[in-house]
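debug: dumping io for the single-chain case to check the tokenizer round-trip. Nothing else runs in this session.
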Amino acid sequence: MDHVATVEYSRASVRGRRLGALVTLLIVAALLLGAPGIFAWLPGALLGAPLAAFAALALFTLPGLALLRLLAPGGLRPTERLAAAFGLSCAAPPLLLLLGDLASLRWGPALCWAFLAACALAAFWPRPGERARPWPVRPDAEMALLLLGLGLGLAARLYTVRGLPAGLFGDSYHHTVIAQLLVDHGGLFRSWAPYAPLTTFTYHYGFHSLAAWLHWLSGYPVPLAVVAVGQIAGALAAPGVFLLAGRLFGDRRAALWAAAAAAFLSTFPAYYVNWGRYTQLAGQTVLPATCFVWMLLFDLAAAPATRWRDLARPAALAALATAGIALSHYRIAVFAACFVLIYALYTLATRVRSWRALARLNAAGLLAGMGGLILTLPWLLRIREGQMLRLAGYFLANNIGTETGNDQSAVDLERAIAHGLLPLAILGLLWILARRRWPGLIFPAWAGLAWVVANPFLVGLNGAGIISSFTAVLAGYLVLCPLAGAGIAALFDGLAWLVARVAWPPLARALLPIELLAAAGLVAWGLGFQTSIVDPSFQLLAPGDIAAAAWVREHIPPETKVFVNSFPAYSDSIYAGSDGGWWLTFLSGRRTNLDPISYGFEAADQPGYMQVVIDRNRAVLDHPADSAAAAAVLKADGYGYLYDGPAANPAPEYLDPARLDVSPLYERVYSHDGVTIWRVR
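debug: decoded output
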């Protein structure tokens, strides 16, 4: 018997080695065909920033692994545990910064590394009577494939932003300023000095805390840390989607295809890089893990053999995740609540068979929800200091979204369903129905409820605009990719059925290589697509701006203000920058006519400061730049210089070099790399 077992194991090992060799060959071919430049770039990138790479690995894994080891119920597969750890790790820094603020604790490199060391001990130190190895000895194919997809997706996302001096478009500026202020203050802050005269900080800050932590752990410059963390969060969409799909489908192959769809097929969230929409991405990184731990809690509560005391630790885990997502992104926290509600109803309808189970389910939900509220309460009280509640009340009272289509964009909707995601998702729904994987129907139900919450006028309620349709569309990959993964699995199930009907044994043996070949083809195409997703037109800060800022620091007195290009944005409600001049205060310390866009929802010492900024810009832009009226307003407001950067989004810009160079009102004093600076005579 032992001899037979040895022979079977040897045969399995040989098949495993052959399969591994085939997978390796296909992946190498995919890289060579899809993005050969990654081969030349990746070694130098890792050697150039080894501490940053190690710090990122520790930051995005260890806190979550520790939390799961301490609080999660048993029975989790290693791949599930790791995928959930990514999201839970992203929830830890904002909670720790809030705790540090309450305890007057200043965060820095030593404290951050000490915390991660404690997390490593909590995650891997063997308990009494427990095996020393928390992970399986043999390689797990599911784990290997998920990590391979994650690694390739991350490499593609980092490769596509190589050489960028900072994040793209408008959002990246205030994200960088917030992250830098967190670093400067060793945690949360209220004063935005020296970058703006704002006196409150009420913006969700999960993403910024991750960028600050990466800086503390490795010394990586904050502007680059913002870009790197954004791209890492984008890559973590794959394990997040895998986590949800695996739990609700109960099919690992469909879950792996869902992860592949998120990493290589879907336009979102990779396209976020062009907008710098990193805070929503950070929230959506925590979202799958939050949904997962709530599913664990409800499943445990509904199980007949569960004791009341068994619910304490999973409820604490759900409370921590809930608080983490609330601090990471307010709107995405609402989407998480939609999922929890739907899953609670599903559990109630399908799993609860006794009054005791019902009582446990209610108690578990109440305990976790109240725990999350208590953990978040200090921050919720702080939100009252800014303008966000006033803005939310304005949207609620006026139903703004019904007039503007609630920020719906046909172009972004097309991006969300591009590359066949929609037909694959429809096929996935059919697969769910045919296989009776009823929990999978939670995905479309979740999407439907989230859409109603974003568009409450559909059911006769006010509040449209508090959560825009744009936000919901951009989060759609969390539903579309799992369903598309099921659709791809359905295609290969159909092929297997067809082969069985034809009864051609040689083709049956080739089904696995065919599926792997299809995966390699998807990776090859996806790498080519993902590495070219950056649109240069969204770059506001150029290398020429950085050199010009150094000149400004040296030649323009600190008390002299500089006027930069601006334009009315967000339905003319605020003024934003259209080129690298918006970054001038951050880079040079000189005040301009623009602040970080947060002046629209934070408070300042000066009453009505938002309107002050609007009036300041409008007073100049109401006149042609080369007119005597514009020059008079500039002098009256204390502007001594004008700045025009090499970028232009939107174009054309207010400051036109061709007209200003010939105007007797201004003198050109700097002109290099597309940047022009004039002195107001």
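debug: round-trip ok. The two ends are 97 Å apart (CA to CA).
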